Amino acid sequence: MTEAKEAILLVGGKGTRLRPLTVHTPKPMVPAAGVPFLTHQLARARAAGVEHIVLATSYLAEVFEPYFGDGSSLGLHIEYVTEQEPLGTGGAIRNVAAKLSSGPDEPVLIFNGDILTGLDIRALVTSHNDSGADVSLHLTRVEDPRAFGLVPTDATGRVTAFLEKPQTPEEIVTDQINAGAYIFRRSVIDTIPEGRPVSVERETFPGLLASGAHLQGMVDSTYWLDLGTPQAFVRGSADLVLGRAPSPAVPGRCGDRLVLETATVAADAKLTGGTVIGADAVIGAGARIDGSAVLAGAVVEAGAVVTDSLIGAGARIGSRTVLSGAVIGDGARVGADNELRDGVRIWCGAVLPDAAIRFSSDQ
């Protein structure tokens, strides 16, 4: 069997929907379960037999290489290619093709840098090889496919169409969506136009289909989550800690909580629901934190209650403050006795005085 020894990882996006998390940090480098999210993807690719990975970078490209270096600490050979102008998903793939050493018919794994998945990568490669496809796509099923690209297939799994973000009931002909991981026959990558923006979803795949190429879909309904929003990112981090989303890179045993070694947690603080406490963070007496991520150097003072929230690096949450579904940017200061709920975002470095925002209990 031909294994996919090489992979391209698309990590150039700006992560606009994740702000303020991505003001100083590219989306794939935001910590999930104690390490940059990208670490989980790299580790899972390595576990599936991938040896060489090219990172297609753009936004804040300079932060990747100092962290991962040549990849040897993960058992990988990592190279970096930076887009000078955004090229889209297809353009990014074409832009890094020169770094690949695979033969024309060998499989190359390509995946998006913002998807947390339990995909069986080896099974996708096997499906690709067995079907003789030019491109194979990981498909997953979702209840409401309107926000995604639909990918109907025939009885043999062969792709029959690509339908971008359908809106009317008549357009929703399947619940199968493009899940953001692909196997390309190496020679197919060279057919993507060079030096201009190309969307693999809107241009490359429909064009290949129209030209008679064989595109194969493999439905894999294991864990799958698009980490495009802060709420999804927090959920994904918690699911990694809980073991619901598999990753060999979680720095500790899976369970209700993950506390990095240099963090300080008061004896009576309660951490539940896959909460992660980052390096050098401090959790005060009686604090209750559920399903949340507290990044490096952040402080949660005594009696604070934090649920389904993300607290950025170096931020401080005052005593008795309640956060629910909130995102606190790096270095922000939220004073005591505040109550922030339902998607509230506090920008990096912002300062909120004591008792500035409260929700009335009789609302």
What does it look like?
The protein is α/β, with parallel strands linked by helices and 363 residues long. The protein folds into two domains: 6-226, Spore Coat Polysaccharide Biosynthesis Protein SpsA, Chain A (Alpha-Beta Complex); 256-352, 3 Solenoid (UDP N-Acetylglucosamine Acyltransferase, domain 1). It is 17% helix and 28% strand. A seven-stranded mixed sheet has the order 5-4-1-6-11-8-12, with helices on both faces. Strands 14-17-20-23-26-29 form a six-stranded parallel sheet. Strand 2 and strand 3 form a beta hairpin. The longest helix has 13 residues, at 230-242. It is elongated and about 65 Å long. The N and C termini lie far apart (62 Å).
List the helices and strands and how they pair.
Layout: E1 6-11, E2 31-32, E3 35-36, H1 37-47, E4 52-57, H2 64-68, E5 77-82, H3 88-95, E6 107-112, E7 115-117, H4 121-131, E8 135-141, E9 149-150, E10 163-164, E11 176-185, H5 186-189, H6 200-210, E12 215-219, E13 224-226, H7 230-242, E14 257-259, E15 264-265, E16 270-272, E17 275-277, E18 282-283, E19 288-290, E20 293-294, E21 299-300, E22 305-307, E23 310-311, E24 316-317, E25 322-324, E26 327-328, E27 333-334, E28 339-341, E29 345-346, E30 351-352
Parallel strand pairs: 1-4, 1-6, 4-5, 8-12, 14-17, 15-18, 16-19, 17-20, 18-21, 19-22, 20-23, 21-24, 22-25, 23-26, 24-27, 25-28, 26-29, 27-30
Antiparallel strand pairs: 2-3, 6-11, 7-13, 8-11, 9-10
Helix pairs in contact: 3-6
